[in-house]
Design goal:
It is built from five helices and 15 strands. By secondary structure, it is of the alpha+beta class. The protein has one domain: Ribbon (Umud Fragment, subunit A).
Length: 259
Amino acid sequence: MKVDGDRAVAGGTSKTTPRQRVWREVASWMWVIAAFILIEGTVAQARVIPSGSMENTVLIGDHVIVTLAGYDAGIPFTDIHEPLWRSPRRQDIVVFRSVVPGEPDLIKRCIGVPGDHISMVGERVYVNGKLLNEPYALYTPSIGAPFAQFPPSGGALQDARLTPAWASQISQHVVDGELVVPNGEYFMMGDNRDDSYDSRYWGFVPRANVIGEALFVYMSIRAPEDVWDPGHLPQRFETYLKVFTDPGEVRWNRIFRTF
């Protein structure tokens, strides 16, 4: 009986007040939030692909893990970002903030790094005078090539797809018929060359806009393109639910595919 009484006393002294329990709960959630900010802001992010501009490398409905490590540090869901020490290499698949105001973040392939001289003739891309080996590039003759030659000149500068700012500036970066990538800037293109709105139309991507590099696909779901557009949460939620009733909508062969 004495032992039981001692246990009862010990148990009584270990009780916490409601206020202490509330503070413990708050503290635990603060750690969760801090971990989320650290991981989402500096380590990795999950992104879903809403368009076909990177086909057939990255498909509509691919869910991709993007590494930020060494590229970018910031506070999620804000404009507070700080570029770090890593920079994109030629032919890396990169996620970056669009240079076109109001446009969402983009995923493209880095074709030119600072100092590179770029030109294109038909389906051939030349970097520093050498033909770039691009087994990933997709061309669709039925859509038609954006430019017979790049950089454009003469009447091609009136192409309506060029942003006004880029149409007026592009000639300043052309030397001997080649586009020269300035310091701190990058030239990005989609692998689906005839169906990609990229640096050919709106110009270079500043290093400060780079978020990270695509690592691998962790999920891939067949669904209409507009399901993955920003603001279509009900349709997206319905698509995720459908996976449980129709697993065939998942592209199982793409899960854990690396880039």
